[in-house]
Design a protein that fits this description.
alpha/beta, TIM Barrel, globular
Length: 285
C-alpha cells in the first residue's frame, strides 16, 4: 500500500496563493509536508527562487527537514516556434542544484505552433537533461496544444530519448478530450510514465478548466477518477512512477497547510493501492 513517505506533494498546493508565495508561506508548506510524513516535494522553479535567488538556500531548508526535492516544475519554452528555449536551462540548473533527477516539461499555448519544432525542442531538452542525470516528463493539459495522453506520447516517441516520458495528472487524465483512455495507456512501455500527480475530478466539468484545475480539485476518492483501474493498468505495464499529489483546492487549503496536507496524504494513501520511493528515476536510462 502507498505510504506517506512514497509521496512528494506539489508544494504549490500547500500555499494559499502559489503565484505570490513569500518565504514564510513556502517554508510553511515544507513544514506541512514533513509533519505529515511525506518523503519529498515537487517544487516550482518560482518557489525555489522566491525563497532565495541562491537555490542552495531552498536545498538546505529541504534537507534540514529530512525531505528531498523529487521533481522541479516546469520547462515551458522548449516548444517555441523560433527554436529558442528561454527557460529550460534554468529548470535544469535548479534541479541539479537541488539534487532532483526529474523535471517537468509543459507547453501552455492553445495550439502547437510547429509540431516538428516541438519534437526537436523536446529532444534537445532531454539531451541537456541527460548530461545531468535528469529525466524529463511531458505533462499534457486539456486546454493546450498537447491536450491528451495520445498527443503527448506521439511527441515523446518521436523525440526518441530514453530519459523522456510522460507526467500523468489524474485530473487531466479525466478531463482530457474523450476522457480516460486506459486501452491506450495499456499499450505504452512502463518506463513511459515517469510521474503521476494524484488528485480527483468532479463529475461535471466547470465552466473554466483552468479555474477548476487551479482551485477546486477534490481529494482522491471524492470524485470520479477510477484510481483502482488506473493503478491496475500501471501495474500491468510495469510503470513505477513518482507519486506527487497535486490537489489544488482553495477551500481546503484555507484550513492551514498542515491540516490540508494531512487530508491529502490520507486520501492518496487510501486511493492509490501501491507506491514507491526510488532514490531517483534515473536520467540516463
Amino acid at each position: 500500500m502507498t505510504a506517506p513517505d512514497d509521496l512528494g506533494p506539489c508544494l504549490a498546493t500547500l500555499i494559499p496563493n502559489p503565484f505570490a508565495a513569500d518565504a514564510a508561506t513556502i517554508l510553511s508548506g515544507l513544514d506541512a509536508a514533513v509533519e505529515n510524513g511525506c518523503g519529498g516535494v515537487s517544487a516550482w522553479s518560482l518557489h525555489v527562487t522566491n525563497l532565495d535567488p541562491d537555490p542552495g538556500v531552498f536545498a538546505r531548508e529541504v534537507a534540514e527537514r529530512g525531505l528531498e526535492v523529487r521533481v522541479v516544475e516546469a520547462a515551458t519554452g522548449w516548444a517555441a516556434a523560433d527554436g529558442i528555449d528561454r527557460d529550460g536551462d534554468l529548470t535544469l540548473d535548479l534541479a541539479e542544484a537541488l539534487g532532483a533527477h526529474q523535471v517537468v516539461a509543459v507547453m501552455l499555448e492553445p495550439a502547437l505552433a510547429d509540431s516538428d519544432r516541438a519534437v526537436v525542442g523536446f529532444a534537445d531538452l532531454c539531451d541537456r537533461a541527460s548530461e545531468r542525470d535528469i529525466s524529463v516528463a511531458l505533462e499534457f493539459l486539456p486546454w493546450t496544444g498537447i491536450p491528451d495522453l495520445q498527443t503527448a506520447w506521439r511527441l515523446v516517441a518521436a523525440a526518441g530519448r530514453p530519459n523522456g516520458g510522460i507526467l500523468l495528472d489524474t485530473w487531466h487524465w479525466q478531463r482530457q478530450p474523450g476522457g480516460p483512455c486506459p486501452e491506450f495507456l495499456a499499450g505504452l512501455p512502463g518506463s513511459a510514465i515517469q510521474v503521476v500527480q494524484l488528485c480527483d475530478a468532479a463529475e461535471s466539468p466547470g465552466d473554466d478548466p483552468m479555474t477548476e484545475a487551479m482551485a477546486s480539485r477534490p481529494l482522491p476518492g471524492e470524485g470520479v477518477v477510477d484510481f483502482a483501474a488506473l493503478a491496475s493498468v500501471m501495474e500491468g505495464i510495469g510503470a513505477t512512477p513518482l507519486l506527487c499529489p497535486e490537489v489544488f483546492n482553495r477551500d481546503l487549503v484555507a484550513a492551514g497547510p498542515s491540516t490540508f496536507a494531512r487530508s491529502v496524504v490520507d486520501a492518496c494513501c487510501s486511493a492509490w493501492p501501491s507506491g514507491r520511493r526510488p532514490s531517483h528515476p534515473g536520467g540516463g536510462r
